Structure formats: C-alpha cells, structure tokens
Amino acid sequence: MLVAEGIRKKLVTLPHKPGIYLMRDRFGTVIYVGKARDLRKRVSQYFQPSRKLGWDLKFKALVDAIHDFDFHVVRSEPEALLLEGKLIKEFHPRYNVSFRDDKRFLMVKVNLNDPIPRFTLTRLRQDDGARYFGPFPNSGALRSTLALVRHQYHLRGCRPLTPTERDYRHCLYAHLKYCTAPCIGNVSREEYLQQVKAACDFLEGQCAEMQESLEAEMKKAAAAQDYERAAELRDMLADLRSTTRKVNRFERVPYSLPIALDPEKDLAELATALGLEAPPERIEGFDISNISGTFKVASMVSFRKGRPDRSNYRRFKIRTVEGQDDFASVAEVVRRRYTRVLKESTAQGAVSPVAALADDSTAPAAKASPDAAVRLTPTPPAALPDLILIDGGKGQLNAACAELEKLGLAHIPAIGLAKEFEEIYQPGEKEPLRLSHESGALKLLQRVRDESHRFANTYNAQLRLRKISESILDEFPNIGERRKAALLKKFGSVQRMRLASVEQIAAVSGFGGKAAAELKAFLEARQQEP
After folding, report:
1. Nearest alpha carbon to residue 3 among 95, 70, 56, 69
2. Which residue in 122, 127, 86 sits closest to 106, CA to CA?
C-alpha cells in the first residue's frame, strides 16, 4: 500500500495526545470519524502495510478511499468520545455505524421551581428554567453516582410531581431514611431545597470531601480484609471520579470547513473554466433538504474570496410546494432570496435590476422619469453574488434560471453541480462540464456545495428534533398519550392550558379534580414553555 506524500507528512505532525480524527475521500467528503487515546499511534495504524492481511473488507474499503484526514486534540478520552458523537451526528460518515441515530448522551436535570424538586435523567436540553448537568459519556457511572448523591443528601427518587402522604406509605426511600420525606412535612420546602442545592454543587465538581471519605473507607475495609466491601467502594469511587471529571460540552463543534491553500488561484481557475470575465469574489450556493416531502427546507451559503462568509448564511422553510418537488423548491427559494435582495437594494437607493434592464441607454433622455437618476444608482457589490451555485443537475438549474430571468437577474452566472459524477451544468449548454478531480476550481465548488448541504441538513434535523422532542406534558407523571392529546385538543397549546382553571382542566376526558389540580400546579411550576 502506497501512502500519499501529503498524508505521510501529516502523520509526522500528529501529537501523542487524545483527540478525534476525520478521514476524507478525494472529494473532500468526511467518510469516517474516530477517537483516539493517542492520535499518532491510532491514525498511523491505518497506513501500516504489515497490518493489511488482518483487515476485513469494510476496513480495506475505508483505507482505500482515504485521500486526506484532519484531527482535533482534546484534553481527555471522555472529551474525545463526546466530540466523536457530535461530529458523527453532523457529518453522517458512511463508514460509521455508532452515533448515527438521534440518541444523545445522558444529562441530569432538576427544576428548582417544582414543589418538591427531584433529579431525573434526560437526553434533551430544553429552555424550561431547569438546571442541567452533563452530558456524561459513561451512563453506568452516572447512574451509580446519582444513586450515591441521593443517598448522601437524602433526596427523593419517586416519580410524582408532588408526593403526598399516600405516596409516603409505599415509599422505600423514606422508610430506609434515604429521603427526608418533605411530602409529609418532615422538613420544610426551604430546608429540602438546601439539600437539592448542595447536591447541585456536588454535581458541579465540589466533591473532594466525598472522594477522600470513600478512599479512606476503602482502605479501612481492605485493611480489615473485607475485600468485597473494598471492591464495592473502589468501583463507587471510580464512578464518582468519572462522572465529576471536568469535560467540554461541545455545544458548538470546534471544527470548520477546510480552506484552500491558495483560494485566489482556485477562483482564477474557476473563472477560466466557466468563461467568466473575472474571478467570482462572492459565490452563493443553494441546497434543498427534505425527507419524503416532509420538513422541506433550503439553505443558502455565501463564500467570499473562496472562504465561508457565515454571517451571510440564510435558511428557508419551503412554503408553497406540495410533496417532494426539488425543482419547484429551488424556484421558490431563489425567488424569495433575490426578491428580498432587490427590495433591500431599492430601499437603500440602489437600482432595481428589472428597472435597469428596462432602461435603454440608447433611448432618448426625455423618456427617463424624473427620479431615474435615483433608481439608476449602481447596486452595491455586496448585494448580489458574482456566481450562483445550485446543488443539482439541469432540472434544478433551469428552475433557478427561470426565476432569475423573471427578476431581471439573468446576467448573474448560475451553474448546477451534480454530485454523482461532479458534473457542472451551465445554462444553454447541452453537455455538462467535467473538471479534473484534482482541480482547485472543482474543489472550491465542492466546498460551497457541501457546506450548503450541511447547513440545510442541520436545519432539517433541528426541525425534526423540535417536532419529536418531548413536550413539557411528557414530564407530568402518568399522563399517557390519550390524555395529552385530549388536553391539546381542548386547549390548543400549553400556554392556553396554563390560563385554564382547575375546573376547566377537570372537564377534559380522563381527568378528575385531583389530577387537574396536580397538572395545574405542575404547569405553574414551569415558568417558560419550551
């Protein structure tokens, strides 16, 4: 196996530190994301010929497809695990299997506004006024530590939102003295809240005293030859350290698109290939994302001088297209985008291209209206792109060009980039243009196309997650889908439900006076609707 010179040089720069690595194919697409305790050792294994006989077919196909790789150093292996999962969900590499679903790492949640707050596990962070701790890469260690916290701070583990004396009679936590039983008034809410806040401080890392206590108890048990107890304390201590170790959360992935080594050269090459008068300083790329005609969205990304200009990214919900129709979706987005650009340009005293094309410079001056001088002020360079890139083939490009012509923007160069063979379609040309896969011009177009694809898919995923994410009603104990549907049918939204009286809630099918009162208290405890 011959290793490319560029990869060989990059391998030498890899540090002996934990991190993640991203393998790329010749098109620059991420095909695999992995984590490593030692980046130099792990990544080098992919390019050692002596290991080739032990490769399975899938691994061999992966190695054969690797054209380049990137890496990112983190502080610890748990951080590498968190970042690996985040990147796999973002890029969906075809050689990764784990983490490709919508499952997320566990977090601990507590809402101090609840009548009697309790700690629960969740995988979704919501804007509901609750406190969240995590995410935690080791769910087993987290569950063990949470049980230790409940025992140490005498916290409840029962499910009811507001436990009553009836719940107390069947509560093992209270009878075993794990819980101070605020439900029957053993302690006041303020006293119990202090216990909860102390547990929050513990989960935030203020646990040195507990670690010292467990370690001393473990050594004492070992000295007394109570090895089973010592092993139990050892595991408990390891879980505690694993859970409370400081890690980055990676809310925003610290990874950016690779940039060209010489973007000016790529732009000049692109201008030559497309027959443009000058290198396109600003390129805008469009992509459509939907799943079987649902959650139809589009993205528009902007590249300035060959680099992403993220402040000018835009995203759209498709409004007028029924079913799955990429051509109509492209037409709608192009129409909406540049109609708005024209309006903003006109409002700033810039020329409307429709008016500019209607005006004939050779016509007599008498035909010009009195305010023609105002309307014919040149459009600011930043208002319109020098090149429009559509993700797709001839059909998508024709739909975009038809809208541009209606808006008087047919003079702006527009192309389509079909992914299967990386063919470039141009208006009026029967045959597509094929550039070398090593061409800087093609790689630039691929970066624009891939970034628009990523941005559209990210927005699509956000909408899907918002749709399927747990409702605030899901946190109300034992509500069930039927009763939740009945409530939403009756009141229409959680906000209107909050304004309803207990009697109005009790009138809903499946609710009685007690359940209605509990739901009312539950909704009042939640100050913000997610």
Report:
1. 69
2. 122
Confidence of residue 351 (pLDDT cuts 50, 70, 90): very low
Q: Could you tell me which residue, 288 or 256, shows the higher pLDDT?
A: 288
In b/e form, how buried is each residue of 334-349, taking b as 16+ CB within 10 angstroms? Answer: bbbbbeebbeebbeee
Longest dimension (CA), the chain: 108
Q: Tell me how many degrees the CA angle 100-105-110 measures, rounded to the nearest 5.
A: 145
Across 44-53, 385-394, 497-506, least confident range: 44-53
Q: Is pLDDT larger for residue 354 or for residue 155?
A: 155
Environment class of residue 140 by beta-carbon count within 10 Å: exposed (0-12), middle (13-18) or buried (19+)? Answer: exposed
State mean pLDDT over 36-64.
81
Euclidean distance between CA atoms 414 and 197, whole angstroms: 59
Superfamily for domain range 5-91: GIY-YIG endonuclease (3.40.1440.10)
Query: What is the bridge-based pairing of β-strands 387-391 and 282-291?
Result: parallel
Residues 218, 223, 224, 230, Cα dihedral to 10°? 30
Closest CA to 433 of 418, 412, 449, 448: 418
- Alpha carbons 78 and 293: distance in angstroms, whole number: 38
CATH T-level topology, domain 472-525: DNA polymerase; domain 1 (1.10.150)
pLDDT mean over 443-453:
89
Q: Per-domain residue ranges for the chain?
A: 5-91, 106-244, 263-359+371-460, 472-525
Q: Rounded mean pLDDT of the chain? A: 77
Give the whole-number percent of the chain exceeding pLDDT 90. Answer: 18
Confidence band of 370 (pLDDT split at 50, 70, 90): very low
Q: 3-state DSSP call for residue 319? A: coil
Give every CB contact of residue 206 below 8 A, 6+ residues apart in sequence. none
The values of phi and psi at residue 340, to 5°, are -70, -40
Q: Which of 411, 429, 412, 422 is nearest to 445 (CA)?
A: 422
Task: Tell me the β-bridge partners of 417.
Answer: 391, 424
**Matching CATH number, 263-359+371-460, of 3.30.420.340, 3.40.50.150, 3.30.360.10, 1.10.10.10:** 3.30.420.340
H or E stretch covering 47: none
Q: Peptide bond before 279: cis, by omega within 30 degrees of 0?
A: no
Does 450 score more than 90 pLDDT?
Answer: no
DSSP assignment of 336-400: HHHHHHHHHHHHTTPPPHHHHHHS-TTS-GGGS-TTHHHHTSPPPTTTS-SEEEEES-HHHHHHH
Q: What is the pTM of this model?
A: 0.46
